[in-house]
Amino acid sequence: MEPNMEYIVAQVTQKEVGRRFQVGPEIIDYILDRQKSHDLEHDQSMLDRMVDSLATSWVNASNFKVALLGMDIVSALVTRLQERFKTQIGTVLPSLIDRLGDTKDQVRDQALSLLLKIMDQAANPQYVWDRMLAGFRHKNNRTREAVCFCLISTLNVYGAHGLTLSKIVPHICHLLGDPTSQVRDGAMNCLVEIYRHVGERVRMDLGKKGLPQSRLNVIFSRFDEVQRSGNMILSSGES
After folding, report:
1. Where are the HEAT repeats (predicted)?
2. Interatomic CA distance for residues 174 and 184, integer angstroms
3. Which DSSP state fits 146?
4. What is the pLDDT of residues 21-53, one digit of tens each?
5. pLDDT tens digit string along 168-211?
6. What is the dihedral of CA 152, 155, 160, 162, to 10 degrees?
């Protein structure tokens, strides 16, 4: 018997780890095969249940292999649904942000790749970042650092023109005073990357943020280094 949406959602919502490894490839195959999953787009409540379960009990699973498989399934949904996945972004983002700070490189890398894929296929980068800003204040310092790295990756892939950076910069400035040195470094690298793309407007903007002069001096000296190195990009964008 061919699987249908009801069967697939039942497989996604069951908790047995061994069974998940068995059905994961079947779920992905179902999602990507339009003939098999012709009902995927038409039963919104089933789709909502499916994505909610993937986010909360697969991507967030303590077993990292389940988390990776969960992200594979979400990635298949993004491939299949494209912009129709936009309504599900708010459901999966908290789990993906958590995974950006995971202890395993493989999990962190896959979470970052999936976020960039969502920005490419389901919604524009600013739509996603508007919903990711809480990540800058995440309780896990590794996650706060990783959210900075995610912004750098976003700029490198999509440039600055798709982002309203004036919304994001205050959150980065806050992290310049973070108790963890790696987070402070991540925030500094973020500002340098923004400067590479946007130029002197960032310097002027930061001067109005009420940052201590000593901190501004350090930031501006990093900007000067980039300027001298010839590594400026200057895509059109907002600061």
Report:
1. 168-206
2. 9
3. H
4. 999 999 999 999 998 888 887 888 999 999 999
5. 999 999 999 999 999 999 999 999 999 999 999 999 999 888 89
6. -120
For range 228-233, the mean pLDDT: 88
Q: Which of 237, 238, 145, 125 is nearest to 187 (CA)?
A: 145
Looking at residue 82, its pLDDT comes to 95
In sequence order, what DSSP letters do the residues of 42-75 get, joined into one string?
A: T-HHHHHHHHHHIIIIIIT-SSHHHHHHHHHHHH
Given a contact cutoff of 8 angstroms between Cβ atoms, the answer to whether 205 and 239 are in contact is yes
Q: Which of 230, 164, 226 is nearest to 195 (CA)?
A: 226
Q: How large is the greatest C-alpha to C-alpha distance in the chain, in angstroms?
A: 69
Residues in CB range of 201: below 8 A, 6 or more apart = 239
Distance CA 92, CA 97 (A): 9
CA distance 200 to 213: 17
Question: In sequence order, what are the residues at sequence separation of 6 or more whose Cβ sits closer than 8 angstroms to the Cβ of residue 233?
Answer: 159, 196, 197
User: How many CB atoms are located within 10 Å of the residue 230 CB?
Assistant: 6
- Asked if 57 and 46 touch (Cβ cutoff 8 Å), the reply is no
pLDDT at 1: 56
Residue carrying structure tokens 């699973």: 61
| Alpha carbon distances (Å) from 66 to 107, 220, 224 | 10, 44, 45
